[in-house]
Amino acid sequence: MNLLLTGAWATARAHLAELEAMGHSVKLLPQERDPLPCDPAWVEGVVCNGLFLYHSLEELPKLRFVQLTSAGLDRVPLEALRARGVRVCNARGVYSVPMAEFALAGVLALCKELRFFAARQREGRWEKRRDLRELAGRAVTILGCGSVGTECAKRFSALGCAVSGVDLFPREDPAYAAVLPLEELDRLLPESDVLILTLPLTPETRGLLDARRLGLLKAGAILVNISRGAVVEEAALTEALKNGSLGGAVLDVFETEPLPADSPLWAMENVILTPHNSFVGEGNDARLSRLILENLRAEGAL
User: Fold this and answer.
1) 48-99 tens-digit pLDDT
2) pTM higher than 0.85, yes or no?
3) Secondary structure (DSSP) of 102-162
4) Residues 100, 154: contact at Cβ < 8 Å?
5) Residues in CB range of 105: below 8 A, 6 or more apart
6) Which of 110, 200, 206, 223 could form a disulfide linkage to 248, CB 3.0–4.6 angstroms apart?
7) CATH topology classification for 96-273
8) Are strands 246-251 and 271-273 parallel, antiparallel or unpaired?
9) Nearest-angstrom CA–CA distance, 281 and 295
10) Catalytic amino acids?
11) Where in the chain are the domains?
12) Which CATH class is domain 2-94+282-301?
């Protein structure tokens, strides 16, 4: 297969010999926004992230395989690709471990008031807090029970939480007390001490956590969003954090990225805010390369 590898696969050059041994011919495109390094009609497969933000699908008449370096599918013309019979693979499972660790770390940081203690450490002040919260025994709801959600479930369960899942495709899963259909979400929200969002952004999930649903959450609950910013109505979330109906939030994704400098979220003491960074982990490169090579090997065998 004629393969176009973009810079989204950072370690691609280390695997060129292996790809060629599989029978693939390779061209490299370090920056996805740049012109293609070959005749577009040459390309049969791509490994990319945001390539289709800069190049139209119509440019690639012979395309039959797309491997994404992201778990999300919202940056590709998915319906058009499927209509053409193009096989699309995402990076499912590659980033799940660091994202689950991030979610747990953020919730614990809020429960244990680590920001307060870090500030006192910088000031050289010995000051106790008598209002620290325990995570054990809390009700945790995970909205989106794919690979990331399931890794979250394992970790929160290990700390003694009662973990329920909500998903478009309910199922029995030992990582959860139950995985329930989306119709059950409103019933679970008033019982949830922690709500973790790990679902993809689709027309159905955009704005799913609106002002009404945020208002249903248990008073003092913590919201974790490591999915996509647009799943939550950010203005409603900001208001819920301001008025105290939400106890805190761990936010790695936002409706607009980078988050505008004038967003009130930056200054909120009950918010842990990071720049779409939760997916980063030292094992990512190895996991991603292993997945890509497995998929390309399978594609070559078809």
Assistant:
1) 999 999 999 999 999 999 999 999 999 999 999 999 999 999 999 999 999 9
2) yes
3) HHHHHHHHHHTTHHHHHHHHHHT-----S-PPP-TT-EEEEE--SHHHHHHHHHHHHTT-E
4) yes
5) none
6) 110
7) Rossmann fold (3.40.50)
8) parallel
9) 22
10) 228, 257, 276
11) 2-94+282-301, 96-273
12) alpha beta
